[in-house]
Specification:
With 218 residues, the chain is of the alpha/beta class. The chain has two domains: 99 residues, 2-Layer Sandwich (Alpha-Beta Plaits), CATH 3.30.70.100; 77 residues, no CATH class. The strands form two sheets. It has a five-stranded mixed β-sheet with strand order 4-1-3-2-5. A hairpin with a 2-residue loop joins β2 and β3. About 2% of the residues have low confidence.
Length: 218
């Protein structure tokens, strides 16, 4: 009987655990309204709060709630073939201590919207995406870590690009950089201290002299 009570207590505690879930998926969405209805219904029924952005190019989601509810949401999303291969980032954390913290984190209400851009870089979105050539290369987490770790060795190598410095541009917003920042010998880290990602382009325009001619990690 004691074991049963203990297990029941653990289950009750697990139900109260709070968490945050982040994920995005770039994929062609054939029916925006259908996906909007799913998110509104599912998140409301599970009492999830946060932000859901849907476009014809995919979804961008940040929601908070009880861990068990977040896990149920993940399973529901996985049942849709559109989200195959999605990387769900789920972390347990303390529930917002007060309304001010909850407001800053964006967890005071549920916002589900259909938008033109998943990640807004301007208050006036371009009518046509720019032609991009000579773009940067995506690095896995292991590759990114390796570049930072070997920065000192790279600086000592005599190559045609030896005059180039390795600079890390931390494009996260100030709420994220409060938690922790990169500190690597021989690598200068630039922190724009932006409130939101859409502030980044103007910062780059005003600080291009710090970036031009160097090898940039983001």
């Amino acid at each position: 009987m004691a074991d049963h009570d203990s297990n029941q207590q653990m289950e009750n505690e697990n139900e109260k655990d709070y968490g945050v879930l982040l994920y995005y998926k770039y994929t062609a969405v054939p029916d925006l309204q259908n996906l909007f209805d799913f998110y509104h219904s599912n998140c409301t029924s599970l009492s999830l709060l946060g932000r859901v952005r849907i476009s014809s190019h995919g979804v961008n989601v940040t929601v908070g709630g009880r861990l068990r509810a977040l896990e149920e949401h993940i399973e529901a999303v996985k049942s849709n073939a559109l989200f195959e291969g999605t990387d769900f980032k789920l972390a347990s954390c303390l529930e917002p201590l007060n309304d001010q913290v909850a407001k800053e984190c964006g967890f005071t209400s549920l916002s589900v919207r259909i938008v033109k851009e998943l990640v807004t870089l301007s208050s006036h979105p371009l009518l046509k995406s720019p032609e991009i050539s000579n773009a940067g290369r995506h690095l896995s987490a292991a590759e990114f870590h390796s570049v930072l770790q070997n920065a000192g060795i790279k600086c000592q190598e005599k190559t045609s690009s030896s005059d180039k410095k390795l600079i890390l541009l931390d494009a996260r917003n100030m709420y994220e950089t409060r938690i922790g920042k990169f500190d690597t010998p021989d690598v200068k880290t630039l922190d724009p201290e932006i409130r939101q990602y859409s502030d980044l382009p103007s910062w780059i325009d005003n600080n291009s002299d710090k970036l031009r001619g160097n090898n940039i990690l983001m």
